[in-house]
Amino acid sequence: MCNNNAIQLKEINKSYQKGNNQVVVHNHFNLTIKSGEFVAIMGPSGLGKSTLLHLMGGLDKPTSGEVIIQGENIAELSESALTTWRSENIGFVFQSHHLLPVLSAQANVELPLLLTPLTKKQRQQHAETALALVNMSDRAKHFPKELSGGQEQRVAIARAIVSDAQILLCDEPTGNLDRNTANEILTLLSKLNKEFGKTIVMVSHDLKVSEYVSRVIDLEQYLGSKECQTNSIPTNVTINAATNATTTPTINTTINTTTEA
Amino acid sequence: MNLLYLIWRNSLRKKTRFVLTLLSVVVAFFLFTTLAGIDNALNSSITNSDGLRLITSHKISMTRSLPINFQQKIQTISAVDKVTYASWFGGFYQNEKNQLAVTAVDKQNYFSIFDEYQLPESQLKNWQVTRTGIIIGEEVAKKFHWQLGDIVPLSSSIWMNLDGIFTWEFIVSGIYHGKNATTDNKKIFFQHKYFDQARAYSQNSISWLSIKVKTSADIDSVARLIDDNFANSSSPTRTISEQVFMKEQAQQFIDMAMVIKIVLSAVFFTLLLIVCNTMMQIIRERLSEIAMMKALGFSSFYLSAQVYLESLFTLSAGALLGSLFAHITLSSIKVVMAEFLPGIAIAPQHYLHLFALILLAAAICTVFPAMSIYRLTISQNLGAKA
């Protein structure tokens, strides 16, 4: 096993019970994503793209198989352990941003930090930095209803990165946005990948994403491919992200740099 | 931003719903506290005479009279300090709309036993030597603008005098004021001796006797002794403490304690339904948000605790306002029902009950939302499609 693997799905079987019928979504599915990759999973609806993302994020459990994230098989974790694990390791960006309407942009970004031992001031600092990274500092006090769709998605991205999670899972983050705004969000995600070394897995229907990512997985083709069966990385993939964790800035180092400046 | 801020913001998310729910809670706790105050009065053992007074009346009914010589017989009991008697005159001034509580009393010692009716010594002495004199409460004096020395005609629907008429003339000889806020200031007293001589019938009879015992420990034994003494007489008696007497008077109209229990049960059942329903509505509306928060790493316990605190906030705010309004209402009721139902007050332990009840109600209101939270599947509520 390569230590550079951020995500490994091994022999994943996933099926749902719908009434009396068993619906098989994934059957002996294998996938490896390296640290620092920016991967887009594409394909028609109903192939289980979001299910894959939810398995990687510990939001759902496979019927069988291993979900190894940064060396830990999360399929074996209990619900409560998974909850804690998610707060420490994964940042989520959803198509519907799911911002709390009663909280300002800054408070929404601070939300995941309520689970950390950070002080109120430290939480504020982290949220301000995350908002600055997504160019939303000037909208920190605005409530979601006062923001455009793109701005809301930026805030959602800031919320995903504020805990400094190394893996970002994005479920159709540009699905509700117009072309220009979608490009802005993709540029932002690309920046987080390249400058901060975030491993990003994105589910999308948007063909334009291939211009921003390091690897596109067309799930329809991939399911029939040898890679899917053997769990090997396709040879034609170029990983263009910064992968050296020691030299890659994090939210914490960014805060320190900002404070020192 | 912290958890309390989040709870505050979430509570006020739909202001109209919050206000309506809060009002329901306010009404519930208003009733709870008000009825607790009345219940306290019904169950209180505190009387104006520190529980030393007994009332002896005819065993069959208060409307049946007793011989006046019972006073001397009761006075012979060693544990008895003083005995006095009284007869109900009823009465009204000018027309029956002006009903008055007029009582004929023993001029010698009635006011020494009922020391809550306070008047200057000179006025008391003047009344004792004025055959047709009356002592009136200051509220009566104020209402009818009566002054010392005024001659006032009072009519009775029960008692005819020797002149064959129901209107009696009295002279205002004294004006009393209550010893404390709960004392009734609307009473009128006149001499029983004059009443006995001037009425057309039922001479030498009285309506009831009031007995003051030497120590409160004697109260039960004295009551038993009096009733045993007269058990085989032509007028068997029933002797009860003044507090029980008051309670019975109130319960002649309605079984207050039972009504209170029924109303309280209904109030809390309704309260729970309202708040539970509101919390369930809230949870249904926020399913995707809860799923998102779970995805971010918030545990089901944390989110349930948040719902509990939100319920607690609404219930506490409602209880605070409801209790405040109840205090204001009870202050008014207390004055109006001072004599009829003394002891209306909110006992300190009521607040402990209130606090426990709020905690319990919030917990019950959290049960179903918490079950929803625990059962919630993140992937389904975030819109995952296979």
Short note summarizing the structure:
The complex is a heterodimer of chains A (261) and B (386). Chain A is an alpha/beta fold and 261 residues long. Chain A is built from nine helices and nine strands.
Radius of gyration of chain A: 18 Å
Question: How can the largest sheet of chain A be summarized?
Answer: 5 strands, parallel
Residue stretches of chain A low in confidence (pLDDT < 50, at least 5 long) are 232-247, 257-261
The total beta strand count of chain A reads 9
pLDDT averaged residue by residue of chain B: 86
**Main beta-sheet strand count, sense and barrel state of chain B:** 10 strands, mixed
The computed structural class of chain A is alpha/beta
* CATH fold call of chain A: Rossmann fold
Biggest sheet: strand arrangement of chain A: 6-7-8-3-9
Distance between the termini of chain A: 42 Å
Please state the overall shape of chain B, judged from the principal axes of the Cα atoms. elongated
Shape verdict of chain A: globular
Tell me the domain tally of chain B: 2
Query: Which percent bin holds the helix content of chain B?
Result: 40-55%
Question: Can you offer a commentary on this structure?
Answer:
The complex is a heterodimer of chains A (261) and B (386). Chain A is an alpha/beta fold. Helices cover 34% and strands 23% of the residues of chain A. Chain A contains 9 helices and 9 strands. In chain A, the strands form 2 sheets. In chain A, strands 6-7-8-3-9 form a 5-stranded parallel sheet, with helices on both faces. A 4-stranded antiparallel sheet of chain A has the order 2-1-4-5. Chain A is globular. The termini of chain A are far apart. Residues 232-247 and 257-261 of chain A have low confidence and may be disordered. In chain B, the strands form 2 sheets. In chain B, strands 1, 3, 4, 5, 6, 7, 8, 9, 11 and 12 form a 10-stranded mixed sheet that branches. Chain B starts with a helix and ends in a 5-residue tail after the last helix. Chain B folds into 2 domains: 3-45 and 254-378, no CATH class; 60-235, no CATH class. Chain A binds chain B through residues 16, 23, 25, 45-46, 48, 50-51, 54, 57, 59-60, 79-80, 83-84, 86-88, 92, 94-96, 98, 100-103, 106-107, 110-112, 114-115, 120, 123, 159, 171, and chain B through 1-3, 5-6, 9-10, 12-13, 288-289, 291-300, 302, 377-379, 382-386.
